Structures are given as structure tokens and as C-alpha cells.
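So, read this over?
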Amino acid sequence: MFCSARTTAVSSSNRLKNPVSRSDSSVYDVEIGERTPLLVRKVCVDADRQHGRDDRNTIQTTALLAILALVLFLLMGIVIGIYLMLLQIPRPWPVSHPFYLVERPVWWSHSATLEASPLNKTAVQNLIIMHTNSESCHDQITCSQIARNVQNDAWTHRATHIPYNFLIGGDGKTYEARGWKGQHGFMELPSRNDTIVVGIIGTYNRRRPDDVLFAETKALITESIRRFSLSPAYRLYGVINSTAPENHAGALYAGLKRWNHWRGFVTI
């Protein structure tokens, strides 16, 4: 409307100046040489085009914001779905004892970096528990020293690093050895890429392990399942050593046999 008004006003002005001017606004007076009506029309067309471009830019911006909002909602849905899925993972038992991990660098003193074949499988199926057949411990200093002794013994006799994935101390803590990402080092045990081996620090042929050892072992199992490193349907085994006394770790296994996932012994 604004552009049309301007065109009409300019055309009327030209007719006053030049009475012989034609009514066709696209023709201009040769003598006067004015092109004002055409220029005004061009200005109006450019303004319309600019207005159209502004409309398109607004539509594009609105569409982009809508897409970003949709992506954000989808991501929030995925996060909520994963969280709900984690809540559905069955725990093997109610955990009253907190999981406490002493990472390997805390106790490790060997000059060489630990080397182990990678444990590539997610959520392994087998869990083997044995005792270390050593002295027991009830504080982190002593337990760390025993972990170093196990490492030194393995290096001295087999030129390999500590063979366990984890050690459980009488102080109620888990000591990381090869961890969740490395295969255990017991060549005589089967399924190295589908098994986690846990050593209970101490000797338990006749003496029953303290309750805190069982509690921390359960906390380690629950944490392993939470990390997707151990299957919720895992199988629990003990070890029978054919060269060891008949009651080897008998008091330890008397307690483990009552656990739901117990499947028997592996003979070496």
C-alpha cells in the first residue's frame, strides 16, 4: 500500500509539470527526461523481494530451532531410557557394605608396567574365587604389602605379573591387580577371555574368612555387574588343586557354596 501511494503521488506530480504526459506510468516525457515512476516501481519491487527474503529467513530459523528442540528431546529420552534400564539390572543381593577400590598405582611398586592380554569380552560369564594361601591382613599398609609380595612371587617364578584380576583384603577393600580390562594370568584355568579371578588374601583351609571379606566380595561382584564387566547371570566357581591338601580353602568354599550363583569347582 505504501509503495502504491508513492507511485500515484509521483505520477500526479509529473502530470502537473507536463500536461501532455500520458497516463501510462511506464512511458516518460522525452523533453523532461524524468523516469521517476519506473524508479519508484523498481524500489517497490526490491522492497517486496527483501520482505520475501526476510520471511524465508524467519521460516528457516524457526525450522532449525524446532529441529534442535526435537533432537534435545530425543537425547533426553535416550538418557532416561538408559537410566531406567540400569535400575532394572537385578542385584545379586542387597549391598550393605560399600565398594572400596584401591587402584593399582597406589600399591604397585614394580619397575615394569603391568602387562596383560586385553579382556575383550563385555560382561564375562565366569567368576573364580580362591584364597592367596598367604598371611591375612587387616589394614591397607599390610594388604598392599601382601599384594606386592604376590606380584614379586609371580615375577620371580613365572616371569609374569600378578595373575589375579582383584584381591580382597581383610580391611574390607578391593585391590586392583589386572582389573576388569586384563585377562587373568593363570594359564591352567580355562576361558581366560571370559573369566574374572578374585583372590581372597589369607589362608582359609580351616579358618572361616571374616564376614567383611564376604561382604567386600559381594560389593565387588555388584560393582562388576554395574560396570557391565560381569554378566548378571554369572557362574561362580572355586578351584581344586590336585597337588594341594584335600581341605585346601575348604572354609572359604563352605561359605561360597551357599551363594546362588555357585556352580562347583574347576580342577587344576
